[in-house]
Write a structure and sequence with these properties.
There is one protein chain. The chain has 238 residues and is of the alpha+beta class. It folds into three domains: 63 residues, RNA-binding S4 domain (Structural Genomics Hypothetical 15.5 Kd Protein In mrcA-pckA Intergenic Region, Chain A, Roll); 86 residues, Alpha-Beta Plaits (2-Layer Sandwich); 69 residues, Alpha-Beta Plaits. It contains seven helices and 15 strands. Strands 7, 8, 9, 10, 11, 12, 13, 14 and 15 form a nine-stranded mixed β-sheet that branches. Strands 3-2-5-6 form a four-stranded antiparallel β-sheet.
Length: 238
């Protein structure tokens, strides 16, 4: 059956559909020995030989492969990709011993830390990437004391909700986002004379980082994924 290449690649668990599109347009995908760069190109996964970054795509076994969902605590100073052209440390350095291959869903900034989801479920990854208003929770260390007016301004401009982080020293805030702009949030703080010194994501919807140490990962439970999918379905219907 003929399907769009990005869908085949995502279903095989190589990358999210968005990342698959980038692989295609950058000339890293070949069908029957011919480099393909057009996003509308279709192929038959059962008949065509599809190579991604030089590796043969094995769609059949991947479709029967058990879906894997990983929560990684990305440390500060680590790139949220599996490879880096500048040879910086990547999240691949912390996934040793993991059976099969997974890819990150979205990214965290280089100097941000915290929860990063990884999976071989291309369809779910694509749904997550389209859910732009999915709630996320961060812990932020902000220099200087914020006045109530400055908090309101940062909340308004960044479309976030802020509260002092319980159990943390002075200067730490819990910031909940929903379709927010972290850039606008930072700009509002900078205009008031404050900076975000540290940024750690601790939750994406119902999936929480918890006590997971930096550089370690855990398998997300079936119950967590089921609840997560219900939230995605609710998000789509709104």
């Amino acid at each position: 059956m003929q399907e769009r290449l990005q869908k085949i690649i995502a279903r095989a668990g190589v990358a999210s559909r968005r990342h698959a599109e980038a692989l295609i347009t950058s000339g890293q995908v070949a069908v029957n020995g011919r480099i393909v760069t057009e996003l509308g190109t279709k192929a038959d996964a059962a008949r065509d030989h599809i190579r991604v970054s030089g590796k043969l795509l094995r769609v059949g076994p991947s479709e029967r492969e058990t879906k894997v969902y990983i929560a990684l605590h990305k440390p500060d100073g680590v790139v949220s990709t599996l490879r880096d052209p500048e040879d910086r440390k990547t999240i691949a350095d912390f996934l040793r011993g993991l059976p099969g291959r997974v890819f990150p869903v979205g990214r965290l900034e280089y100097h941000a830390s915290g929860l990063l989801l990884l999976t071989n479920d291309g369809e779910l990854a694509n749904r997550i990437m389209r859910a732009h208003t999915l709630r996320q929770t961060y812990l932020c260390k902000i220099d200087g004391a914020l006045t109530p007016a400055e908090v309101r301004e940062a909340e308004h401009r960044g479309r976030v909700k802020m509260a002092r982080a319980k159990g943390f020293p002075k200067g730490w805030w819990e910031v909940k986002t929903s379709g927010a702009s972290k850039d606008e949030f930072r700009k509002a703080l900078i205009s008031s004379g404050h900076h975000v010194d540290k940024l750690r994501r601790v939750a994406i919807a119902n999936i929480e980082l918890g006590p997971l140490p930096p550089g370690r990962y855990r398998h997300v439970t079936r119950e967590e994924i089921a609840a997560f999918e219900r939230l995605l379905a609710k998000h789509k219907s709104e």
